[in-house]
Amino acid sequence: MTSPNSPRVIVIGGGFAGLSCAVALAGRGARVTVLEARRTLGGRAGSFVDEATGEVVDNGQHLFMACYHETRRFLETLGTGRHVRYQKRLMVDYIRRGFRARLKCPPLPAPWHLLSGILTMKGLRHADRLSLMRAAPALKRLAASPEQVAALEGISVTVWLDHLEQTENLRRWLWHPLAIATLNQSPESAPASLLAAVLVAGFMSHAADSGLGVATVGLGELYTGASRSYIEERGGMVRAGVPVIGLDLAGGRVTAALTRDGERLAADSFVSTL
């Protein structure tokens, strides 16, 4: 629990990053205030009530991977980790224009489980398999060189796949669904470095890490509401509908956050997750 001497921290942004940061700080005894511009928490991965139907609708991250170790620890801290069910081994069903195929990875060490699963998958042409084999050495080098992953930050997934000479068919069946599901962005705009990081963490370390997970409850129940409760139970505060429009500086340090309604909120430290 917090005390009058606990450090005061303002976290700007109430999405996955902001709430996980705030929960970690609150768990270490800080007095945390979360400021979120929207009326609802969750940012790009949250829930909202549909005005027409009154139903709670999820927006954003619907798919998890077993390699999301920090996310899983975050949910376990909240007590909601049990609401995400993970595959023991990666298996994905594809349906396109009446044709059905299945990517099923055998019980082999990483990354051979994925390579074997893709090469034996129906629906791929000989040219698709060849393009994957040609790209395999470059993909494997990513695991041995974090610098190569970071170097991809300036290009999109689409440009990276062009460099790897990946076929259009393989993009439709493998790369695009993977990028959209894990990054929640189109391949044209998603940074290639993020997809590379997913590949390294999910497919090149341990085979079990590539299993997919699906939440059995809405995102609001999974983490936004639980985060608010966790923070407030430890003396913190979560304020939605409070846009931050500026920061006060003194002596080279941030001293206060300025809200659109004219509030000046002081703290010892500030974290921006925008």
Structure, described:
There is one protein chain. With 274 residues, this protein is α/β, with parallel strands linked by helices. 38% of the residues lie in helices and 24% in strands. The chain contains 9 helices and 14 strands. It has helices spanning 16-27, 69-78, 112-119, 126-144, 146-150, 157-163, 168-183, 192-203, 219-233; strands at residues 8-12, 31-36, 46-49, 56-59, 63-65, 84-86, 91-96, 99-104, 212-215, 237-240, 244-250, 253-259, 264-266, 269-272. The strands form 5 sheets. Strands 10-2-1-14 form a 4-stranded parallel beta sheet, covered by helices on one side. The protein has a 3-stranded antiparallel beta sheet with strand order 5-9-6, with no helix packed on it. Helix 4 packs across helix 8. The longest helix is centred in the middle third of the chain and has 19 residues, at 126-144. The protein starts with 7 loop residues before the first strand and ends with a strand.
